[in-house]
Amino acid sequence: MSILNRLTSQHESLSLGADLEKLKAKFQPIFDEIAKKTLFHEQQRILPYDEIQLLKDSGFTAIRVPEKFGGAGVSLPQLFELLTLLAEADSNIVQALRGHFAFVEDRLNAHKDLSQKHWFERFVAGETVGNAWTEIGEVQIGEVATRLSRNIEGRWFVSGEKYYSTGSIFADWIDVYAYDEINQRAVIVAVNRHENGVAILDDWDGFGQKTTGSGTIQLKNVHVFEQNIIDFATRFKYQTAFYQAFHLATLSGIARAAVRTFSEEVRQRKRIFSHGNADLVRHDPQVLQVIGQASAQSYASEALTQKVATSLQDAYLSHFDQSEVLEQKANHRAELESAQAQVVVSQLVLSLSSELFNALSASATSTAKQLDRFWRNARTVSSHNPIIYKQKVIGDWEINQAELPYVWQIGQSPKAKSA
Questions:
Q1: Cβ atoms of 311 and 283 closer than 8 Å
Q2: β-sheet bridge partners, residue 191
Q3: Domain spanning 147-234 has what CATH number?
Q4: Does this chain's domain 3-128 share its CATH topology with 239-400?
Q5: 9, 33, 46, 231: least CB-packed within 10 angstroms?
């Protein structure tokens, strides 16, 4: 018996899938509108406030919420297909929404044991959640400097500073990773973006994904309601695979946009080389080969992203099943496949976004065209989780059946000061 059949009584509270073609018809015009400003935003480094607000108003940011609670109830394969299309329009926006959809996913899982109707209502109303987990500077690996404390009146407060706070500058809430000093545990704190003591700086200086709002968040004695403090140990189990799938969708969208843009450049090109192979570049077989290779690489990237998304959906459904063994297997498969896909998709998209320049000439390097943005954005996305470590853990599993790391951190080495 399939998981779906065993979950019949819970169907209306789950996100099992929607009419994808209907959703594409609804959102593609919005994606097309967003795409019109992407090049200008890239040239001027303009943050996409209006575009993200448009997605909020359209209900896009609530599509994973079950229909029963006002969302579209899309499955994870459907979500990542739509995200790939959005990333084709503007890859920065998909990354800016990564923390939001992860928090939504966590609340979908938490709904098994405790009603999350209040959060679902917020999502449907267009409220979004940003991300604030990573700390930079001298904080040592395995530690967290952001602290949650309680005063003598019983009120909770959080203080600290985060970087790589992707999407928070556009959000209504912030998903903050902190240490609970009272209960001595790691927690997630849902901070209201508009509380006193919250400061968000637009100081992200990466050469790619420039408009994701991935800068600094400063929290100074920010009040937090107790119901918005979540034990990190309860975080949804397939979160690392889910976060990586977002990068896969972003990379797949970059690939689609690169192939489309370079194809149009070739189609419109009038100049030819004396030692070329045709009277028009668009008929030159070697140029067609370059475009064809990139198109195939783009297709493979999307196919792998969808394969991972299918495993994620199985992990999601297994959480509501009664078998811990099956849930563990589903989570392992999702983590393994997301790691395998990361290794391959990153290389595919980095390759095509560079090799496509062989279809044109020096004019393709014009800063006005910003054709290098595809490689820069892909390189930036591919750098978040080092591929070499993914390759290592995959190999360790293949040879030694070693457990895959579901959660990891980055921080200063304890030996850094003495080195």
A1: no
A2: 174
A3: 2.40.110.10
A4: no
A5: 9
Q: Specify the pTM.
A: 0.96
Tens digit of pLDDT at every position of the chain (419 positions): 566 666 655 667 899 999 999 999 999 999 999 999 999 999 999 999 999 999 999 999 999 999 999 999 999 999 999 999 999 999 999 999 999 999 999 999 999 999 999 999 999 999 999 999 999 988 888 889 999 999 989 999 999 999 999 999 999 999 999 999 999 999 999 999 999 999 999 999 999 999 999 999 999 999 999 999 999 999 999 999 999 999 999 999 999 999 999 999 999 999 999 999 999 999 999 999 999 999 999 999 999 999 999 999 999 999 998 889 999 999 999 999 999 999 999 999 999 999 999 999 999 999 999 999 999 999 999 998 899 999 999 999 999 999 998 887 888 888 877 55
Residue 192 pairs in a beta bridge with: 173
Other CB atoms closer than 10 Å to residue 31's CB: what's the count? 21
CA distance 126 to 53: 8
> Other C-beta atoms within 10 Å of 15: how many?
26
Buried b (16+ CB within 10 A) or exposed e, 248-269: bbbbbbbbbbbbebbbebbeeb
Query: What's the half-sphere exposure (Cβ side, CA atoms, 13 Å) at 281?
Result: 19
At the topology level of CATH, where does 3-128 sit? Butyryl-Coa Dehydrogenase, subunit A; domain 1 (1.10.540)
Distance (Å, rounded) from C-alpha 130 to C-alpha 97? 7
Domain boundaries in the chain?
3-128, 147-234, 239-400
Cα separation, 97 vs 254, in Å, equals 16
From the list 172, 164, 263, 255, the residue with the least C-alpha distance to 217 is 164
List all residues 6 or more positions away from 274 whose beta carbon is below 8 Å from its beta carbon. Answer: none
Closest C-alpha among 53, 62, 66, 87 to residue 12: 66
Do residues 24 and 82 make contact, with C-beta atoms less than 8 angstroms apart?
A: yes
| Cα–Cα distance measured from residue 143 to residue 159, given in angstroms and rounded to the nearest whole number | 15
Query: Quick one: CA torsion of 324, 328, 334, 337, rounded to 10 degrees?
Result: -150
Residue type, 338: S
Amino acid at residue number 32: D
Q: Under a CB-based contact definition with an 8 Å cutoff, are residues 353 and 374 in contact?
A: yes
Q: What's the one-letter identity of residue 218?
A: Q
Helices vs strands, H then E, count in the chain:
12, 8
